[in-house]
Hints:
This protein has 3 helices and 18 strands. By secondary structure, the protein is α+β, with helices and mostly antiparallel strands. It is globular and about 50 Å long.
Amino acid sequence: MNAAEAAKRRAAAAARQVVAAKHADDAAKRAERDARKAAQQQQQQQQQQQPAPTPTKTAAAQPTPVPTAASTAAPSGDILSNGRLWKQSYVEDFNTPAAAGKVASAYPSLATYDGFNDTSGLGRYAPDKVLSVADGNLDMHMRTENGQPLVAAVMPDGYAPHTTGRVSIRYKTTKTDGYKFVGMLWPSSDNWNDGEIDWPEANLGGTPRPASAVPGSYQDGRMTFEPAQETFAATDTTEYHVATTEWDRGIVRFYWDDQLVATTTKAVPTTPFRVTLQGETWIGSGPVPANADGHVSIDWISIWD
């Protein structure tokens, strides 16, 4: 046998070993499959001999009920409203007490206006003097010090932008001349021509009315507001009530204690807005009485997107 033939035989032997190994591997796999199949058949036979277990009923997840004036606890979870499931993105029930000047450290998510005048130009934003938290309420204590009316504005979830949103607050106010309160959705751009949603809005102790500015309607220092016919809540603000703004695609709805007050399809923003709770001096009613001393008590706020 010459060297060439020997090399061929060695190659053939190696090839047979590879084939044999493959056959052995296939046989092992077949045996494994057969054993697994036999075990499955045995298990099925045993199950057929046993009574079927009673299925366990699992309760489907339910959206959070829509909050009402009697809802002292802040809502937790998503809400189904007008065919849309609103996802809760923020909630605060103000259970951590904080003295004046300490609110920012106790509630770091809150942002505030500070050191400039309010809408009328009569009040000065002074959050460290006006804001405190006690008895489960964020308190806005608006009054005059050294001839200057002091007010406050709070962005609960900071400057977070929302392109639609559902905002509910449970609150009450004193009946006090000189000051007002408004829950707002304000343009993230700070361009008034993008629109403005106001609800609830009233002088302290008054009856709130909703309003929404038509985007792009700015002219001669004014915006056009809807609804054109003013509508009002069923009660004033001297007791706790829940005000809800539902800014949906193509429509804005305004609720008072879960009762629809008004809607608009003409004044619906399409750009990002931020949530603002604004205590300020009244507008167009003259000077603020020097002895006016008013409070806005916010029990909780919840925001859904």
